[in-house]
Amino acid sequence: MTPPATEGVTVVRADNLRQVYPISKGMLRKPDLLQAVSGVSFSVQAGKTLAIVGESGCGKSTLARMVSLIESPTDGALHLGETNVVGASADQKRVLRQKVQLVFQNPYGSLNPRKRIGQILEAPLEINTDLTAAQREEKARAMLALVGLRPEHYDRYPHMFSGGQRQRIAIARALMLNPSLVVADEPVSALDVSIQAQVLNLLADLQKDLGLAYLFISHDLGVVRHIAHDVLVMYLGHTVEHGEKNAIFSQPLHPYTQALLASTPGLAGSGPAQQRIVLKGELPSPLNPPKGCVFSTRCPHAVERCHVERPTLQTLRGRQVACFEAERLATQ
Ligand SMILES: Nc1ncnc2c1ncn2[C@@H]1O[C@H](COP(=O)(O)OP(=O)(O)OP(=O)(O)O)[C@@H](O)[C@H]1O
Where is the ABC transporter domain (predicted)? Predict the structure, then answer.
């Protein structure tokens, strides 16, 4: 297979993406507006992985649904290659959908138990290409080999495979249409730890061979450390820190990033600020976010200004961070 994109080429660019859900309060009252994603920007190049991290409810999956064209953003721009998905025609979207493929968390639920593996792999080709049956089968068998499965698995059913093998099949299916971007939503979190490493290595090998861009959604920073080139930390729909993985993991500057790293065994940083932070309390409701910094209600470093004014992203020590106190914390 030839690489679908050249390394360094921007595969996806999101500018100020927003997703607002109206929450009904009955027929006669205006709905509340829930800001699931509040102005998130990023880009991913061919051959690179951007990991989106944060607690449950921070907006990771909503972002994944927008980038996979399952949902339209309420606002902002989303470029896949040169085309802005927002405002694209139905025909353009049909073509763009082939360029973005999803791998889900649950390899047990995502494969139809009544279909043979060959049928599962060939289904996207039947709908989207003019390939003959023989050509489809050839491609499916080649794809099985590419993800480390034997060609004779072509005739078997999903229940005959382990969780790790099923996730390999799900990855194979995602690659059948030669996408340039794979959105992986917690792709290894349902697997045993020993199998996780194998699937992560497979994803890394495929990325190298095919020049794929990955948007990798995960709450597990241990996994993110292995697979990501860049990291975007979300809190309550907002980006709080975004930049190169090594910069963020070696010196997290946002108190929320510090807390996430401090709570991951083996990843707590060496700086005094990182060792001190323990995340307490619940994520506030996105229906009623804090007035100032979204993290202010749980932040041990919050000062008066943080409760009244919302910090914007600023560049500091080679990454972007949204925190009034980041400069001071960086020098501690
Ligand atoms: N279709 C929807 N309608 C209304 N609210 C929604 C909808 N989808 C998500 N939300 C809300 O948007 C916020 C972000 O949800 P989202 O699922 O994107 O977060 P997440 O970080 O992916 O969490 P998880 O890891 O639990 O999936 C949550 O408050 C959620 O309840």
Answer: 12-261
